[in-house]
Amino acid sequence: MRSDRQNRTPMGLKIAAGVGLAFLHLPILLIFLYAFTTEDKSYQFPPPGLTLKWFAVTWNRPDVWEALGLSVRVASISTVVALVLGTLCAAAISQTRFFGREAISLLVILPIALPGIITGISLRSAFNLAEIPFSFWTIVLGHATFCVVVVYNNAVARFRRVSGSLIEASMDLGADGFQTFRYVILPNIGTALLAGGMLAFALSFDEVIVTTFTAGQQATLPIWMLEELVRPRQRPVTNVVAMVVVLVTFLPILAAYYLTRDGDQISGQGK
Amino acid sequence: MPYAVSFQQVSRHFGTVRAVDAVDLEVEAGEFFAMLGPSGSGKTTCLRLIAGFEQPTAGHIEIFGETAEGVPPYRRNVNTVFQDYALFPHLNVADNVAYGQMIRGVAKAERLRDAEAALEMVKLPGYGARKPGQLSGGQRQRVALARALVNKPKVLLLDEPLGALDLKLREQMQEELKALQRALGITFVFVTHDQGEALSMADRIAVFNEGRIMQTGTPEEIYRRPKTRFVADFVGSSNVLSPDLTRQLGGPAEWSSLRPEDIRLGAGGGHEAQVTGTSFLGSATRVTLELAGEKLTVLLPAGSDVPAPGATVRFSWEPSALHLMGTEA
User: Fold this and answer.
1) Model confidence, pTM
2) pLDDT at A5
3) Rg (chain B; Cα; Å)
4) What sign does the CA torsion over B79, B82, B87, B89 have?
5) What CA–CA distance (Å, rounded) separates B173 from B186?
6) Domain's final residue, options B213, B231, B249
7) Which of A267, B90, B115, B158 could form a disulfide with B98 if both were Cys (CB 3.0 to 4.6 A apart)?
8) A172 closest CB neighbour out of B79, B102, B104
9) A187 and B134: CB-CB below 8 Å?
């Protein structure tokens, strides 16, 4: 049945799909290719020669390490903040009824729907008004605004499946609030939190717009790359870094995809 | 011997809703006690007050002589079988049953041994390794029962325990629950809206309506001598006769109740009424009569002559069958 249906797909449609996918992914492969070029002033095609030397050059550039370190720290701390706040928020929204519940749910999700530039400008003016100097922590705050959403969205969907009576059953069997969280709630929402956390990390790691508004002198990795593109010095270094960024953000997203998929199966069996 | 559960003027209000309103209740130790009522009558809230999921707005609750107000559910020696069973989906059956002992810090080997013993008691030996999702509704119910009983509670609370099971399974579980209760000697308090279930299982029944207890008594008392119109109608769908009609039928001007199965048709004497409908129920046939604008239901045993709708019949009853409930009921 299935192969029959595949065979009936018109050739034109197949080609269109192939072209679409190529359009999406070929530029990324080009970036990978130019990480190995021998020529460092302009991107001529085809590359005159291939070399691995840019990996060594990148390895020895302190500014790369600084930007990478900053990005990792910002992404980690934003993710932790988002995990705590997002989980608490999801618990409140899904487990209790109170006035304005739906409005709050919408307000939590809003930052991801707002253009980053709005979030960035409003945060910048807020920091200015409050006379908070731009620093590592202002970047973290900026990133946390949209990281919370990702964690919240993942957690709230799972929380809905942890019925109130499971929590009552745990209490009934002698577990206090902390034990109930540890033995009943966490195992049921764990994979959702992991997935949300990984997505949040990936989002924060390559964020540019909000960062440009909330950073002081620091350059996160994406900001550093923007600056590098402007001056044509050791250009392939940028490509090497780009490859690393693709891997660092792609792997967690892939893992998150598989984790939530498994989670759905597990909770599906529970019904 | 103190009461297993005692309520003194207990109320639980949600805003302006009086879910439970000044209830007095005594459950004897070792008793199989039913809280019967329609949905929204306050019976489940009473159960949750005993479990500790709700705190009373007013009044005093004691469980085996100990004050229960302010004591959280996890410090009460009371366990609940939930209506939706509430088995933990991420744990297998054995770990579900062993959960209470795990929380109390019982060693793993010991608690799993106890869990298996409890599963044997509910006739599910060897099911420990399965996940709740792989069990049928009836099996989940048994696991929920084992999970509660393994903690040796002083009072076991059951919230509509048989509501989700089909008829055959329900009848079987009724007997098993009763046998289990007798064997263990634990006080069972169960909530149900099914009067048949309450009558067949309970030692005593409290009938709830609108947050109050209408009547407490043995199944026999509740069925034979209902105190109010509500109890007469809700338990066994009795014919509730207005004071007017009672007088017409030769009684005093009081509310009264007349059980459908106590009415006989045909035999000379008695009163005349018109048949408006009949329906075949298997073990009996239900005949609806109309008399002076009021409806009367009659239950004829299988094999009786069933009158046709529209016919005029004579009906009568033993004088003792007419139960008077006073002018205020």
Assistant:
1) 0.77
2) 53
3) 23
4) negative
5) 17
6) B231
7) B115
8) B79
9) no
C-alpha distances in angstroms, B306 versus B116, B265, B267, B269, B279? 54, 9, 13, 18, 10
- CA distances A148 to A135, A209, A221, B18, Å, are 20, 17, 21, 40
Nearest to A264 by CA among A188, A151, A178, A170: A188
| A271 shares contact with chain B (CB less than 8 Å) | yes
Interface test with B, best of A99, A163, A172 (most B CBs within 10 A): A172
Shortest distance between the Cα of B49 and any Cα of chain A, in A, equals 12
pLDDT, tens digit, for every residue of A171-192? 999 999 899 989 998 888 888 8
Domain with residue B245: its CATH number is 2.40.50.140
Q: Which of B231, B257, B287 is the last residue of a domain?
A: B231
Which residues share a beta bridge with A36? Answer: none
In a domain, B143, yes or no: yes
Residues from chain B contacting residue A184 (CB–CB below 8 Å): 88
pLDDT at A158: 86
More confident call, A269 vs B183: B183
Contact A173 B99 (CB under 8 A): yes
Do A168 and B80 count as a contact with CB atoms less than 8 A apart? yes
State the smallest CA–CA distance between residue A262 and chain B in angstroms. Answer: 13
pLDDT of B84-108, one tens digit each? Answer: 899 999 999 999 999 999 999 999 9
Query: Which range scores top for mean pLDDT: A82-96, B198-212, B259-273?
Result: B198-212
Q: Residue A155 pLDDT more than 60?
A: yes
Are B62 and B127 found together in one domain? Answer: yes
The answer to whether A163 contacts B103, with C-beta atoms less than 8 Å apart, is no
Q: What is the pLDDT of residue A60?
A: 85
Chain B interface includes A186 (CB < 8 A): no
Whole-complex ipTM: 0.83
- What is the topology classification, in CATH, of domain A62-269? MetI-like fold (1.10.3720)
- In terms of residue numbers, what domain contains B279? 237-324
